[in-house]
Amino acid sequence: MVLYLKEFKVKWGMVIDLDRCTGCGACMVACQAENNLAPPVDASNKRYSMTWMLVYQLSNKQPYPNHDVAYMPRPCLQCGKPNCVPVCPVIATDKNQEGGIVSMVNARCIGCRYCQAACPYHARYFNWHDPVWPEGMEKTLTQDVSTRPRGVVEKCLYCHHRFMYARDKARIEGRDPNALAEDDYIPACVEMCPTNAITFGDLANPEHKVHKLSKSPYAFRLLERLNTDPQLYYYSQREWVRRQGDNFLEHETVGGV
Amino acid sequence: MALNRRSFLTFAAGGVAGTLFTPVIWKSIDDTAIWTQNWPWIPRLEYGAQAYAATTCKLCPAGCGLNIRTVSGRPVAAEGRTDHPLSQGGICPLGSAAVQLLYLPARIKGPMQKQADGTHQPISWDEAEALLKEKLAEQRGKEDAVVCVSGDENGTINELFSALLGGLGSEACYQMPGERQVASRVLRQGSIGYDLENADFVLAFGPDLLDSWGTIVRNKKAFGAAHPIGEEASAKYVYVGPMQNITGGAADQWIAVAPGMEGVLALGIAYHLLQAGLTAPQAHDFVSYRNQVINRYTPDFVERLTGVTPDQVAKLAEMLRNADRPLIVPGSSIAQGGGVFGFAAALSLNLLFNNVNVPGGIQVLPDLPTVVPGAQDTALIRARDFVAYIQSVAEGRTEKPGLYMVYEANPLFALPQPEVTALAFEGSYLVSFSTFYDETAAQADLLLPTPTFMERFDDVQTPYGSGFASYSLTRPVIRQPIFDTKPTGEVVLGVAKALDIDLGFTSFDKVLEAKVSALAELEGFLVESVQPWEARTGESVSAVSGNPWRTISRGAVWASIAEPFPTEMLLGSTIISQTAPPDSEDWAFPVSLVSMDSRTYGSRHIAIPPFCLPLLHEQEIQGDVFYVWMNSATARSYGLQAEDKVQLTGPSGSCLARVRIFEGVGRNMVAAPLGFGHTAWDKFSRNKGDNIYKVLTVRREPGSNLAVWADSRVRIAKA
Predict the structure, then answer these.
(1) 3-class DSSP assignment, residue A137
(2) ipTM reported for the complex, 2 dp
(3) Chain A contact for B250 (CB, 8 A cutoff)
(4) Which of B92, B289, B358, B588 has the fewest CB atoms in 10 Å of its CB?
C-alpha cells in the first residue's frame, strides 16, 4: 500500500513503439556510457549484470512460419505509485520532485535491497561487486553521474542530469524551468534510438506528443492492474504484444481496437 | 536523592529524547554511509569543460556520423549526429560503444615484431619501418608477390596501398568480401544505391536492412520515418528470407523462404509481373529474360523450390504493382557470400518497374575520383574475389606471395573456412596494421598498429547501400594518440619514399585534401537543411562554395545525386540462366546453416565491445557457450531440446553450441551468429562461443564462378 500520494503538474514519461523497435540495443549501450556503468567481463548471468535499460524479446509463440517477435526496452518505469519508495528505510529513493522521476541517492543507500524486491519490473540493480574499469578506461567516465560502489542499489533515472541541464539552460535563457519544451530534455536512450522508437515528453502536457500517444487505444502499461501507475507506456498495434503487458486470462480482452 | 523507578525512567526517557536533538548521531550515520562508500580503488569523476567533436565512424562500412563528447579533451561518450544524412542523430550499438574501445585491453600499444618463440616484442617505429621496407624490397619486381587485403571498403587509404603495390610490381590489392563484390558483377562502373527514403514499398530479398546490411542506421531511420507512431505507415517493408532475423521481425511482413531461394522467388514474382504485361524495353535482353522467366519460373516450380505458395507469390506481385514507388533490394542476409543469381534476379524486378535513377528506386552512384597517382581503379579492386584467391593459394594453384599486408581486416577469423586462410598465409611474411590484437595480428610477423578512428584522419566515401554518393571525413577527437601508434597512411607514404616509389604526397592529410578538391569534378552539395533524398524529389540545393576542405574537415558532409553516366541496364538474363541455384538434396550435410550478423556482435574487424555484452540475452550466450537457433520441429527430429549441447559440423570444421528454440527459423535449418569465438583479443571477447566461419563452406557459383558461402550446409548432432 502506498502511504502517501503526491500529484505532479509535470510527469516526464516515455511512449515506446514496440512495432518500431528492432531490438538493436543502441539504447542500452548509450545508457551505459551516459551513466558510467562499468564494462562487464561476463554479462551472461542476468542476475548479476547491470543494465538500467534492458531490451526483452517477446514471442507470439506460434510455430514457423507464423512466428512473430517484438522487442521491449525496459528502463525504470518511474511509477506514479512506486512500490520501491515506501519500503526504503533510509529514504534513499523517493518520488517528490516535480517531473515525477523516482530518485535514487546511492550514497544514502544501505543496500538492504527491499526496493529491489518490491519492484515488480526488475528495474533495480544491486552492486554485488565494486565496479572495475580496465586500465585507462576510467578516463571515459562522464562528469555527470557518480560511480557507485559495492553494496548499493541503482536504477534508471531518465538521465536526471540532463533534466537538470535542461532546467539550467532554460533559466539562463530566461524561460520557465518548470515548463520545458519537448526537445529541451531528452534521455540518452531516446536520443540515440536509430528508429526513433521512443517518444519522450511530459505526459501531463497536452502539447507534448506523449500525452496524446499515451491515450491511444494501442498504448498500454506493464502490469497495469498492480496499480503502480507507471510513467512509461508501450505502444503496439499488435494485439498479441499488448496481451503480454499483463497476466491476462484467456477470456479477458486487452485494450485496443 | 535516591534513584527510584520513576526517576530512572524519567532520566532514560530524557536521555533518549535528548540524543534526538544532538546532531552527533545523525552526522555520524551520514558520515559512515559516505565513508563506507568512498574507496580509493573506485574511480572518481573528473570535471572539466564539455565539448563535442563531429567525426565519422570507421568501425564498420556504414559511415555514420558521430559526435564525440569530450570533457577536458577526454572522449567520454559517442553520440549521434543530427546533421549527418547517413545516421541523422541515430547510432548503432557498436558506434555507441566506440569511445571505450580507445582503452580496450586488446589495443596494441606500439610496433612489435614476432620472435622465434612466437611471442611479440616491442620495437621502435624506426626499426619497424626499416623492417617493412626491407621485407618489401625483397619482393620488389616479383609478380604479385606482395598482397594487400583491406577491410576498409570506403577509405582513400586503399589508393595508397594499390599505388604502393603498383610500384613494387604487384596488382594484388584486395578487399574483404562484401556486397560490393556481387554488385560489381552486375554493374561494373560505379555502385548501386537504394533510395529507401522515397520508396513506399520496400521488398528486401535477403539483406538484413535493419541490423547489418549497408547503411544500417540510415536504413533504420528510413524505416522509422515510414512508420510514425500513432499514424498510418507511409511505406510498407516486406522481408523475404529463411529466418526471422531483425529485419524479418520488424518488417510489416516476413515471407519465409527456403535458404538460398530468394532469387527464385523474385523470378516467380517476375512471372506474374510479365504475365500482367510489365516490360523493360530499355533492356536489350528483355526478350530472353521474359522467355526464361515464363518458361521456367512457373508458380508450381517456384513453390517446390521456395516453399512459398502460388497465392502468396501472386499477392506479392500485386502488392508491388499497387505501390507507387516500389523498391526491391537484393542481398545476402550476412552482407557477404551471396551469389550473383539471387542478386541479379531480385534487382531485375526494379527494371520491370523502370525503377532506375528515379526517386524511390535504385540509383547508379559514381565512384569518387582517385587522387593518388598510380592507384588502381576502385572498380577493379572491388570486383576481385579474395576468398577465391585465398583458396587458390591454399590449394597450390596460385603461387604463394612473399608478403601479406592486412589493414582493418581480420582474415584469419572472418573469412569462411579460416583454416584455409591460415594455410594460404603459412610461410609468408605477415604484416598487420591492426589497432587491436586480433587473430590475424596474433599470427603476424610485424605489427604496425594504426590508431583508432578517433585518433586519426581518415575518410568515408559512399558506403554501399546508400541512396546517394557521399563523402565525409574522420578526424582526431583527442589531442594525442593514447598509445605509440602511427596512422597507416603515414606508414605507407614513408615506406614508399624509402623505396623510391613516388606516391605524389608527403602526408596522408594532403591526400585527403586532394580528395576533397577532386570532389569538384562531380556535381555535389554540402548537406545542410536539405537531405540528399529530398534533393532527389526536387528540393533545391546550392552548389559547394567557399573552402570545402575547411567545412568538410569540420564535419560537413558532401553529397551528390547526379547521375554519373548514362547507364545501360540489363536484366541479367545471361547471369540468371547460368547461375540458377542447384535443385538438389545434400544428404551428407542435411541442415541449412543460416548465419546471422549484427552490429551487437561487433563488425568484421572489431570483436564484440564490452558495452555490447549486456545486450546478449540469456539465450545468446551463457558463460562461454553460445547458442544456435532452431525451431522445435527441427530440434525434435534430431533428438534435441532447449539448452542441449549440439555440434555443428561442416565439410571442413565444427562448432560447439547450445540449442535455443526459436520458431522464427524454418524447418531443417539452424541459425547461428557470426562474430563469436575469438581466440585473441582480450577477456571481454576471448573464448566466448565458437566461430561460425569455421563451418561455412565455400563453393563456386556456376556461371559467375564467384566464391559463395551464405548458403552453407551442416550436420547437427547432440554433443
Answers:
(1) helix
(2) 0.94
(3) yes
(4) B588
CA distance A92 to A104: 6
Point out which residues pair with B205 in neighbouring strands. Answer: B240, B330
Chain A environment of B224 (Cβ under 8 Å) = 20, 194-197
Q: Which of A28, A32, A134 sits opposite B105 (nearest CB)?
A: A134
Which has the minimum average pLDDT: A126-130, A223-227, B136-140, B579-583?
A: B579-583
B610 close to A39: Cβ distance less than 8 angstroms: yes
Provide the sign of the torsion angle of the four alpha carbons B440, B446, B448, B449, taken in this order: positive
pLDDT at B542: 82
Mean per-residue pLDDT, B686-692: 94
Considering only CB atoms, A19 lies closest to which of B33, B87, B227, namely B227
Tell me the CA distances in angstroms from B36 to A37, A125, A145, A151, B33, one per residue in order.
Answer: 20, 19, 19, 10, 6
Q: How far is CA B536 from CA A84, B133, B164, B363, in A?
A: 53, 48, 39, 11
String of DSSP letters for A40-106 = PS----TTT---SSEEEEEE--PPTTS--EEEEEE-----SS-SHHHH-TT--S---STB-PPP--G
Please report the pLDDT score of residue B581 as a whole number: 65
Mean local confidence (pLDDT), B85-108? 95
| Closest by Cβ to A133, choosing from B43, B632, B663 | B43
- Note whether A78 and A101 are within 8 A (CB): yes
Beta bridge partners of A69: A59
**Chain B, 588-647: which have a CB under 8 Å from a chain A CB?**
598-600, 610-618, 621-623, 631-633
Bridge partners of residue A234, in order along the sequence: A16, A220
First to last CA, chain A: 33
User: Which of A14, A17, A24 is the best residue to mutate to test the B interface, defined by the most B CB atoms within 10 Å of its own CB?
Assistant: A24
User: Which residue of chain B has the CA closest to A67?
Assistant: B664
pLDDT band at B580 (very low <50, low <70, confident <90, very high): low
Phi, psi for B356 (deg, rounded to 5): -115, 130
Label residue A256 by pLDDT band (50, 70, 90).
Answer: low
pLDDT in tens, B250-285: 999 999 999 889 999 999 999 999 999 988 878 888
- Buried residues in B291-300 as b, exposed as e (16+ CB within 10 A): ebbeebbebe
Cell numbers 542530469 label which residue? A161
Partner-chain contact B91 A63, CB within 8 Å: no
Q: Using the beta-carbon criterion (under 8 Å), do A26 and B93 form an inter-chain contact?
A: yes
Chain A CB contacts of B632 under 8 Å are: 63
Displacement of CA A22 from its chain's centroid (Å): 18
Contacts B91 to A, Cβ<8 Å:
26, 30, 192, 194
Query: Which pLDDT value is given to residue A1?
Result: 42
Q: What is the pLDDT of residues A176-213, one digit of tens each?
A: 999 999 999 999 999 999 999 999 999 999 999 999 99
The answer to whether B648 touches B593, Cβ cutoff 8 Å, is: yes
Helix (H, G, I), strand (E, B) or coil at B504: coil
- Asked if B411 and B176 count as a contact pair (C-beta separation under 8 A), the reply is yes
Q: A212 vs B39: CB contact, 8 Å cut-off?
A: no
Mean pLDDT, residues B596-625 taken together: 93
- Say if residues B601 and B612 touch (Cβ distance below 8 Å): yes
